UniProtKB/TrEMBL annotation:
It comes from the Bacteria. Keywords: Antibiotic resistance, ATP-binding, Kinase, Nucleotide-binding, Transferase. This is Aminoglycoside 3'-phosphotransferase. Gene3D superfamilies: 3.90.1200.10, Phosphorylase Kinase, domain 1. The keyword Transferase applies. Belongs to the aminoglycoside phosphotransferase family. Residues 130-208 form the Aminoglycoside phosphotransferase domain. Signal peptide: none annotated. PANTHER family: 3'-PHOSPHOTRANSFERASE, PUTATIVE-RELATED, AMINOGLYCOSIDE PHOSPHOTRANSFERASE-RELATED-RELATED. It comes from Mycolicibacterium komossense.
Length: 225
């Protein structure tokens, strides 16, 4: 996930939802989906994700997870768009937090621990089935599914305050999230110790599970959808 270059054209659905309010493109993911931010004045912000994606499935996951943990509220969706209300805080890769990498990493770790502790495995409708020949499960949790640093939000005091992009949420070993989260530190905060995130989560590194889930994450099939 990265900031889009230039000023991409605003799709008609985004213009319709914005209804004259200021709009700008803020995120581009590896599948080519663009997210637009709508400024709503005193009412905060809204976001519209457009392009390729399983937006009905993501809307269902957000609605379910919102009962237990801070995630965006769904305002509407279609076959190629998802409209959500903004949450307080900034992405962990906002320049303010990139300049404070250790604090950001600890917020990411604490946020994942909260997510894993709060979401109930027994009632989660989705199970990750894309892991073949995985190591024995350490702890089964409801995983975020895309636990890269940009998907954690941090408040002004440096604390976790929400997660976004839950389209791959589902039950799996917690290392499916932790391996990806620590991997993403190197992309966003070069030189930062992975242990900062794991210490905040409350766990020691597990080299075998980290290696397996990182390799699984980086396969072409996974990156393609």
């Amino acid at each position: 996930m990265s900031s889009p270059s230039g000023s991409p054209p605003v799709p008609g659905v985004v213009s319709r939802i914005a209804a004259g309010r200021p709009v700008r493109a803020v995120w581009l993911n590896e599948l080519g989906a663009l997210t637009f931010r709508i400024e709503c004045g005193g009412d905060g912000t809204e976001y519209v994700k457009t392009g390729p994606g399983e937006f009905a499935a993501e809307a269902d996951r957000l609605a379910w997870a919102s009962r237990y943990t801070p995630v965006p509220r769904v305002l509407g969706y279609g076959s190629d768009w998802l409209h959500t209300a903004g949450l307080p805080g900034e992405s962990a890769v906002h320049p303010h937090w990139v300049a404070r990498p250790q604090q950001a990493a600890r917020a990411i770790g604490a946020g994942l621990r909260m997510l894993h502790d709060r979401l109930p495995v027994a009632s989660c409708p989705w199970v990750r089935t894309d892991f073949e020949d995985a190591p024995p499960v350490d702890r089964l949790v409801v995983c975020h599914g895309d636990a890269c640093a940009p998907n954690t939000l941090i408040d002004a005091d440096g604390r976790f305050c929400g997660h976004v992009d839950l389209g791959a949420l589902g039950v799996a070993d917690r290392w499916a999230d932790l391996a990806v989260a620590t991997l993403s530190l190197g992309w966003n905060y070069p030189g930062l110790r992975e242990e900062d995130l794991l210490e905040a989560y409350g766990i020691e590194p597990d080299a075998i599970r980290i290696d397996y889930y990182r390799r699984s994450w980086q396969t072409p099939d996974h990156l393609g959808g």
